[in-house]
Amino acid sequence: MTHSGSHSDYPQPRRRRSRGRTVVSTVVALAVSVGVGYWGYSSLMAGEGSDDPQVVDAKAELQKFLDAWRAADAPRAGRLTDSPSNAESLIKSVMTNLDPSKTEISAGDGEKKTEGEVEVPFTVKMTLPGAGAYSWDSKADVIRTDGKWKVEFHTEMVHPEMVPGQTLALKTRDRAPILDTNGDDLESASLVGMVDDKTGKGMSGLQARYDKQLTGGAGPLKSVVVVDRQSGQVVKKLTGTKARTGEPVRTTIDPEVQEAAAEALAGVKKNAAIVAVDPSNGHILAAANMPSGMNRALEGRYPPGSTFKVVTAAALLKQGMTPSDPGDCPKFTRVNGQRFENQDQFVLPAGSTFKDNFAHSCNTFFVNSRSKLSPSALHDTAEAFGIGGTWDVGTTTYDGSVPVATSDNDKAASTIGQARVQASPLVMASVAATAKAGVFRQPVLVPGAVKKKYEAPARLDSGVVAALREMMRATVTEGAGWALKGIPGEPHAKTGTAEFGSETPPRTHAWMIGYQGDRNLAWSVLLEDGGSGGADAGPIAAKFLKNLVG
């Protein structure tokens, strides 16, 4: 709410005449903003009023004032009164505060009270953002002094419910808060979202999704009020219904984990996100974005790159492979003429194992292992991680996609999280959580709004889970997850460098996902166009985990 200036010295009318003030008339409707600017009558309404020359001249002068008011031309309106500065100030305050999308001001028939004094009734009709249609009736005295007609200005003339020192304004209906798991206000701009200042409606995030719950239901979200110009305090409410009190939205966000994630992203120059979930129940503990605004943590769609090798490894393990199986890691491999290579074209020495290839993220090993997988193997295994389902989280999410391979090249690229494989940071945090828990538990942000959690149509064998855990730990102790080495809590991880775009060489997103061995915490880090998973996402993940362990 805005209020313009402080004016307690409005001049009182020169003569206090015994005349009844017309009680304000209101019409409340849903706010609809149509068009821009102001519009209204440009000429005095014709009537059956007096043809007395004084009445005609007085009404004409008042019309100039009403036209200026309608057009929000406060200086001109002020000059047409006997108190220019006070009239200009109040008209400016009223029009600024109400900010109507439409204004009509129509004058009725004037009545000559005494020689040189005419009283004219008028009606103001406005369409106000968030408050709908509002109208009121009033009267103006037009007086002649030194041969000139002037509108006699006093506060009650602008609105009969006001007295000097007051103005009109819009008051937004109180919104209930959005809370974290501790019952405190949620500190996450990307999750909370924004409220439109004009209409009072939630525009994004949880504010938009739970607008009715937070505001108490249907009806105008703003009311017209009389406020004290000095303090801004509401003196009188002129419109609005008694809507029920809004109810808070309670989330699963853990403020400690959320703060650790936000601090880990502080100063990051690229678009980035961190998501943390509780593997035991799927509760989303943190969802941080840099910059805030787009909720890429939960809604972003990206190729997951080598973090998807957790799923590919699960598919290979299901086919009978073990972490100790030997596996070559050449610099290049080709599939129907398409060349696949390792990052920086590294190779692993002879005698390397499946676990070594996983820990160091050898692309060529996984591409060359595709013959062990059917066209639908990755799709089917991804289902055990909940990928591609429809998740009822309590907010908008992207839940991933792993299509059935349509060609050998498609399958080859999919093994390393490329081709048509897509995921959000939330999906990849859930992949790590599934490895930790041994079973997919659908992520949840607003438990009270979740009607039915998604159940994965497949489950991972216990032997597959044990092998995944072994290889994810080796990624930290022996492989590309070196940035987490030495951090307490026995972190397990998988790095990812995902190509995107059509440039040569291709640009890459940097990923790292993982979980803590000593607590129910799984997480993912995404750095858009960020380089390498191990070298660039890894330090951010390390900072996040260090923030948590102090």
List the helices and strands and how they pair.
Elements: H1 53-70, H2 74-79, H3 84-98, E1 102-107, E2 111-114, E3 117-128, E4 132-145, E5 148-151, H4 155-158, E6 166-172, E7 178-179, H5 189-192, H6 205-209, H7 211-215, E8 222-228, E9 234-237, E10 249-250, H8 255-265, E11 272-277, E12 284-290, H9 296-299, H10 309-318, E13 332-335, E14 338-341, H11 354-360, H12 363-368, H13 377-384, H14 408-415, H15 425-437, H16 462-477, E15 491-500, E16 507-516, E17 522-527, H17 533-549
Parallel strand pairs: 7-10
Antiparallel strand pairs: 1-3, 2-3, 3-4, 4-5, 6-8, 8-9, 11-12, 11-17, 13-14, 15-16, 16-17
Helix pairs in contact: 8-17, 10-13, 10-16, 11-16
From the spread of the alpha carbons, the general shape counts as elongated
Overall pLDDT metric: 90
Distance between the termini: 43 Å
Largest pleated sheet: 5 strands, antiparallel
Number of domains: 2
Number of H/I helices: 17
Per DSSP E runs of 2 or more residues, the count of β-strands stands at 17
Strand content: 15-25%
* Secondary-structure arrangement, i.e. CATH architecture of the largest domain: 3-Layer(aba) Sandwich
Query: What is the SS-derived class?
Result: alpha+beta
Rounded to the nearest angstrom, the radius of gyration is 34 Å
Q: What is the CATH C level class of the largest domain, in words?
A: Alpha Beta
CATH homologous superfamily caption of the largest domain: DD-peptidase/beta-lactamase superfamily
Query: Helical amount among residues, as a percent range?
Result: 25-40%
Oligomerization: single chain
CATH topology title of the largest domain: Beta-lactamase
Q: Unreliable runs, pLDDT <50, ≥5 residues? A: 1-49
